[in-house]
Amino acid sequence: MAKKLIKFVKKHFEDQVLDSHSRLGNDTVVIERDRLAEIVERLRDDEKTQMDFLRAITCVDYMHRDPRFEVVYVLYSIEFKHMLTLRVVVSEDDCKVPTISHLYGCAGWTEREVWDMYGVEFVDHPDLRRVLLYQEFEGHPLRKDYGKQDAQPRIELLSRERDSVEEFNVFVKNKPAEGSRDN
Amino acid sequence: MAEDIYEPIDQDVHTEPMILQMGPSHPATHGTVRFTLTLEGEKIIKCETEVGYLHRGFEKEVENSTWTQVFPYTDRLNYVSPLLNNFGYSLAVERLLEIDVPPRCNWIRTLMGEISRLSDHLTCTGAAALELGAMSAFLYAIEGRELVWDLIEEVTGARLTVSYGRIGGLKDDLTEGFEERWKYTKKRLFEIREEIGQLLTRNRIFLDRFQGTGVLTPDMALSYGYTGPCLRSTGVDYDVRKDHPYFMYDEVDFDVPVGSKGDNYDRYLVRMDEIVQSIRIIDQCLEKMEPGPINSDDPRVMLPEKEKVYNTIEGMISHFKIIFEGIQVPPGEVYSYTEAGNGELGYYIVSNGTGKPWKIHVRSPSLIMMGGIHKLIEGGLIADIIPTFDTVNMIGGECDK
Fold first, then answer.
1. Which residue among B19, B223, B371 sits closest to A165, beta carbon to beta carbon?
2. Nearest residue on chain A to B222, alpha-carbon basis
3. Angle at alpha carbon of residue A179, lines to A173 and A181, rounded to 5°
4. What is the rounded radius of gyration, in angstroms, for the C-alpha atoms of chain B?
5. CB contact under 8 A, B371 and A132
6. Could you tell me if A170 lies within 8 Å of chain B, comparing CB atoms?
7. Which residue in chain A is spatially nearest to B332 when comparing CA positions?
8. Which distant-in-sequence residues (6+ apart) come within 8 Å of B327 by Cβ?
9. Does A148 touch chain B (CB under 8 A)?
């Protein structure tokens, strides 16, 4: 059973597969990024695979390698109990991957986390904001060139009301709330 | 007619959705998470979740420590069941090292892991009851948790931040007289479970608050990555312990309780049933366990005996190298997963062949569940947030890493 999934991807998307291996119980396929969403959708919807569960999305920064980043998707099927790891290589200059947030609900947040920590942009993501860090944070802390002790600029909290209802209204409705000071 | 009086007023009243900030520190929720709710009357039409208030940079910190030094950090992920995090991490590194641990080690890991799960479920159930006003149920649950923590303290030496796991083994064997203490604890735990059940399971107030609130459908749960009791309450019987047995879970006999409706009440029932299953597993572990070594004899990962360290040069060098340079893990990457208290706890580990991890990614069930909690909250009332948030059992340390 082990290599069935690798074969499946190779059969249907032969020109997209860059590399594949099966080690330590993890089947891995390295693919081109352009048709990522299509491949994931096929894996999710095909009767033979039914990868209906997205375990994790993460990213690895291979500092001295070119291309530098590798975005990792771990897919699983509750029905068949098989797992496949998809890896997409991304270079530093063109740090973009198509989103799969329309395919899995949880991808929305896990992609936000990767953006937060590594600065990999997910194209067409509906709401790509930081999730664990605050929005004024500068840089992406899990990149290897971000020092462990690097300091962040001080935020002038008093210059504006960051957590105010007014700001939320502006954000959500693009208009000031009733009775807002900005009216 | 009396109603006519109000008619013109009704037409004139200008209504617009109200925005309410709930959290990050709210007296009726445990854990720091902020909901920005858009309300229509008392109905929630939109919920924006914000997490990260407890972010400690776990993943950055571990990249700068040796493989063994990661254990104390994993304790602080899900701090209600730290042993499960310890063992999950040990298992992941052992998979990368391709080493096997002795059977007794696996038995103890199974046993202590289930003890930790008991503490997780008792805390969750107790806190849920407390936040709905049932103080006595909470006190019973906490008594049970104290008993469980006493056992953990006896074996590991600490109550909360245990750091009991090691790569290739454990810190210590079980103590003498553990079985006797467990017998007492078990008896009391059954009584406590019974008492909590009598207080809550058929309590009218509790039923009204729990039944039909925070409903999760199986498809939604899968799509949003829910695992553990939350997923099982919807009827999907996915449990890593059963589907991909690790440690000694394939040698013990236990059931996976599942719900059917996926609401708060089902999640509560699943947790109550899992308490019984955990006790069953612990009993079988104690029965089937045999004396033997608890640590692997692989010199790459285990510290040499003290006698050798002090009397032979090889022993000393080996000790020095493991402590200072860390265990040398061969290059590669692995995704390893175990069943933690709240769901699937996964570690994606990348090694570049040195003593320090190149990357450790934690698939923390809480963070992923927080990404989909708006689906459970939207359409409900503000009061329903409290039981929903409790039964989802978000743990801040794990969620915010």
1. B19
2. A53
3. 90
4. 24
5. no
6. no
7. A23
8. B66, B67, B68, B93, B97, B167, B300, B301, B355
9. yes
Write out pLDDT tens, residues B333-384. 899 999 988 888 999 999 988 888 999 999 989 889 888 888 888 888 888 8
Q: Mind listing the pLDDT tens digit for each residue in B126-144?
A: 888 888 888 888 999 999 9
Under DSSP, is residue B184 helix (H, G, I), strand (E, B) or coil? helix
Least confident of A162-171, B149-158, B341-350: A162-171
Distance CA B91, CA B327 (A): 15
Selected residue of B46, B95, B223, B376 to mutate for chain A interface (largest A Cβ count, 10 A):
B223
C-alpha separations of A74 from B91, B365, B371 in Å:
18, 14, 17
Q: What is residue B338's three-state secondary structure? A: strand
Distance (Å, whole) CA A6 – CA B184: 52
Give the number of A-B residue pairs with CB atoms closer than 8 Å: 105
> Three-state DSSP class for A31?
strand
Cα–Cα nearest to A131, from B362, B225, B49, B62: B49
Segment 41-80 of chain A within 8 Å of chain B by CB: 52-56, 58, 60-61, 72, 74, 78
Note whether B52 and A132 are within 8 A (CB).
yes
ipTM: 0.84
Helix (H), strand (E) counts: chain B? 18, 8
Angle at B109 between CA B105 and CA B345, to 5 degrees: 135
Q: Let me know: does B286 contact B182? Beta carbons within 8 Å.
A: yes
**Taking a C-beta distance cutoff of 8 angstroms, is the pair A142, B58 a contact?**
no
**Under an 8 A CB cutoff, do B52 and A54 touch?**
no
